[in-house]
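Forwarding the complex inputs:
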Amino acid sequence: MTEVSHDPSAAREARTPPPVEDWIAALTSEGPVRDDALRRLHAVLLRGARFQVSRMSALRAMVGVAQVEDIITLAADEAMVAVLGKLSTFEGRSRFTTWAYKFAVLQAAVELRRQAWSHREVPLDAVPPLIEPRPSPDQYAEGAELAAAVRRAIDGVLTPHQRRIALALIVDEVPIDVLAERLGTNRNALYKTLHDARSRLRAQLVLEGYLAPSTRSPGDTR
Amino acid sequence: MTAPDRPLPADAWRLLTTAPGAWLSCDDCFRLVDRYVEAVLSDASEPASGELAAMPAHLSGCSACAEEATTLLLLAAGDEDVDPADALRRLTAS
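Prediction (whole assembly, two chains):
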């Protein structure tokens, strides 16, 4: 298989700089001009997918080498369909290649997360209470009191749904796409739950005097 | 994955209390991310404005979107032949 690059400069070296204004015209034309544009677009999308996968080393190690290459190819193919289907929505407010890359990057990231977690259990039925950790001296220095307040707030002010989603995403580090798939929902809905959970936790910490109302950094203690 | 007894990991409380900022969905983040990374790459001093104003907070709070936006920024920087180091620091800065 082609070696997956870890170096951002690889993307720079491999780039194909087509005239930006030509992309839409070429892709909506006919004959050899369109065929050439399609070939160049697929190369752009392969580059985007490969670069995304190259940056996800921990998850990449959890799937086989051949599977990684399949993920890259599949992502580029699916991104090609998405880009061509949304061509009329491209407003020219970014480079065409930057706009196109994002479809390949998303497809590659979602698919690698899904494949890497395909054999891992995500038990969500019963999330036990958090226990009081015994802080190390370093943790004292970094605000063990605030950490304990956060732990209490998690159990005290979050709904059961907010609690299990927040802990799965932040503590157990389940990828949001994987969690969405297991729960039959989507990334937007889970991120909204996390967003609301953070608002509740911060409100409680302000109420208890651990954060100032206008404080933006969670590390700022009373 | 979920042990019977579980301490709160050292840095989890920071991630759980990240200021959520104005609401922006992951779909809207995806819609805007190509414009946002190019804006971050092209302007060293101006904070995100208009529709893009909610992007830094979203990327600070959503690790998946942040991971993808970082890749996009590196790809765009490669195409523009610019050093992405400063822009990477500004990607999630409010």
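The beta strands of chain B are 6-7.
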